[in-house]
Write a structure and sequence with these properties.
The chain has a single domain (about 5-90), classed as 2-Layer Sandwich (Alpha-Beta Plaits), CATH 3.30.70.100. The protein is globular, with a radius of gyration of 13 Å. The chain has a 4-stranded antiparallel beta sheet with strand order 2-3-1-4. With about 100 residues, it is of the alpha+beta class. The protein is about 35% helix and about 35% strand.
């Protein structure tokens, strides 16, 4: 199992229509084959300056690679993520045996 997580901050003002549009568009990632336990999250800790997070799981590396290569993901990164995300931290986890 791989848990893919990303914490991020948008270029848009907090609570703006642009912010809501970005998050709504992100929900399309949940429908990509292989994605399990998709969540959009709000950052609540003052320990960093990220505002949101995505978390999802994949059964294995093949499923994760399928997600990365899927046209919906590629388009989201190209059309929304790159132009609208100001900063992010991506972490992919696998359980310790």
């Amino acid at each position: 199992m791989i848990r893919h997580t990303v914490a991020f901050r948008l270029k848009h003002p907090r609570g703006s229509a642009e912010e809501q549009s970005f998050l709504a568009a992100g929900m399309a990632l949940a429908g990509i084959p292989g994605v399990e336990r998709f969540e959009q999250l709000a950052q609540v800790s003052p320990k960093n300056d990220f505002h949101f997070g995505y978390s999802m799981e994949f059964a294995d590396q093949k499923a994760y690679q399928g997600y990365n290569d899927h046209p919906v993901h590629v388009a989201y990164v190209r059309d929304r993520w790159i132009p609208e995300v100001e900063a992010f931290l991506e972490i992919d986890y696998a359980p310790l045996d």
